Amino acid sequence: MSDSSAVHESHEASRRDDGRRTGPATFYRQVVAELRKVVWPTQEQLVTYFLVVMVFVLVMMAFVSALDLAFGKLVFALFTGNSSQ
User: Fold this and answer.
1) 80 with 71: CB under 8 angstroms?
2) pLDDT at 8 over 90
3) pLDDT by residue (tens digit) across 26-66?
4) SS3 of 66, please?
5) Domain locations in the chain?
6) Measured between alpha carbons, how far is 1 from 24 in angstroms, rounded to an integer?
7) Phi/psi at 53 (5° precision)
């Protein structure tokens, strides 16, 4: 049995139990219970992740800017016949 069919069957089984929708209070309690299961990163991990993402974004910005400049000069040289301008 695949995971998706197991999820589908369990979902249908829960619908067959009472056939009603979950109320807002029950939904809120379930959300809070699920959030308690989350493993939150420490402040040190958060700072590390932030710095890694910022460095990656800055490197990619520099790379894309360099490509833009190079292709711009190439197109300008092709259409004007000289690259001195």
Assistant:
1) no
2) no
3) 999 999 999 999 999 999 999 999 999 999 999 999 999 99
4) helix
5) 1-38, 40-85
6) 33
7) -65, -45
